[in-house]
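Margin note: ligand = adenosine-5'-triphosphate.
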Amino acid sequence: DPVEDKRALLDFVNNLPHSRSLNWNESSPVCSYWTGVTCSKDGSRVISVRLPGVGFQGPIPPNTLGRLSALQILSLRSNLISGHFPYDFSNLKNLSFLYLQYNNLSGPLPADFSVWNNLTIVNLSNNRFDGSIPRSLSNLTHLAVLNLANNSLYGEIPDFNLPSLQQINLSNNDLTGSVPKSFTRFPNSVFSGNNISFETSASRVPPVPAPSMAPNPKSKNSRELGETALLGIVIAACVLGFVAFAFLIHVCCSRKKGRNEFSDKLQKGEMSPEKVVSRTQDANNRLVFFEGCNYAFDLEDLLRASAEVLGKGTFGMAYKAILEDATAVVVKRLKEVSVGKRDFEQQMEVVGSIKHENVVELRAYYYSKDEKLMVYDYYSQGSVSAMLHGKRGGERISLDWDNRMKIALGAARGMARIHAENGGKFVHGNIKSSNIFLNSRRYGCVSDIGLSTIMSPLAPPISRAAGYRAPEVTDTRKAAQPSDIYSFGVVLLELLTGKSPIHTTGGDEIIHLVRWVHSVVREEWTAEVFDVELMRCPNIEEEMVEMLQIALSCVVRMPDQRPKMPEVVKMIENVRRVDTENRPSSENRSESSTPPPPASDRES
Ligand SMILES: Nc1ncnc2c1ncn2[C@@H]1O[C@H](COP(=O)(O)OP(=O)(O)OP(=O)(O)O)[C@@H](O)[C@H]1O
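Resulting structure:
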């Protein structure tokens, strides 16, 4: 533990009243346990503190956070922090991201910004800062985003030369004079709400008309209402058509910049804007985080995050959301949850308690009448399905035999862990290759646990899950552990054949993978079954045939004849302990004329 940093954080939290409790105990490890805190790789220093919306009230106690001299990210936004900008933050020489927006900070901005020469994003908007904009900001050569909007800053805007600056917002202050030459590349709207004269010049972007219903930023009330109210006002204005033009321009601009806010996505979905507003206003419903989760964000953060649609699954849409500190999370928005709040919460608690290196951890969830969300880590390499079959026209990723064995073994171990839950009765209910990801050691890792029990009865048999569904589930619509084994067997067949569970041939004929494999094997053409890509790997035929036998034992018709998950794990381990590497590697087999797989595909 970084003892000094821990002390500084405890001094901070013990001396600043807050309404949400934090799991910061003296006895627990800071780096792996404390909410909102991230340490350096070697665990020697705290490098990030993110505590938005914790309800901190009052001035930041001196000589607390200022002692975290290795800090790179500090987010205390959306609290009720008052007082002056802490003078001892000048010790935070490594600070790159500073988010203090939506607080009640007052007084002048720090005179000397040059002490933080790594600063990249500075957001001090929506406070009560006054005084002038410090000239020293011009020393920040990495500064990409500067937001000082909705304060009481006055005087002229200094003419900085900030080559990295991509976004600036100085709107709604008391600034005077004219827009300096170096900032004429930004739209007039970022300077609006000041006493600034805009000289007309051919190079200027035409001014964006201010929404006629925009709140008076100087009024205390508007600050207290915060973003939710703004969102509501904007939506209301849209509905009334008063600002259609401004809104269109705004949408175009944000599209251009590639930023699609998660809330936008929600609005584009089936949810009405009114519902979004009412939902964000529902103070009783908060994101619930699981113990040991290091993320610190709230629902508003998620709604504000840049989001990308990952896809529509059986249970709703999945989005990739990038939080302000560049953390990527996956948010699943569940449709048609069939259970009430209590059952939902109980199921989430079970799922959230499953901690295993081969199970994708549920980080947080959210339940309200209108909205049910689940938050997971984002797996940048995509799912095994995307790797095997390519996704949305993307290339399929080359997976050699070692990779596939590790995926199979990891997923089997994850499944065995899941089946051990709830006194050995827990059912996954939706095993398929798009729900399997690769962990940091490139072993399979199972996602989407526990959803099938809280959702409305299974989707019609035509759905994408059909190829994975055991025959008895098609009839009874009820998943059980043996049907999970069947689905897992289909995933093994996918890994062996490289084919989707249901696919068409050139002649539009629909092929069911299980039936196809059975028919080929029956004709004793077993070798024809395997993915041609695997044929490049030397000396693996025996292992492939053994894996094929395991897969076929999982997809037998009678549920009680299928092996149990721990047995499947043992059988795969017996084919080859990929993790102990008891098979000579392909490089050592010089007799082979086949070239070894590319280095990136090999086990590290
Ligand atoms: N944690 C994650 N990291 C990266 N991508 C993810 C993550 N979770 C889901 N995805 C991807 O998002 C897309 C949609 O996922 P989702 O689980 O909602 O649907 P699905 O897997 O296609 O079907 P189902 O809902 O039946 O599981 C899929 O392409 C999936 O691989």
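The pocket of adenosine-5'-triphosphate is lined by residues 310-311, 313-315, 318, 330, 332, 360, 376-379, 383, 430, 434-435, 437, 447-448, 465 (CB under 6 Å).
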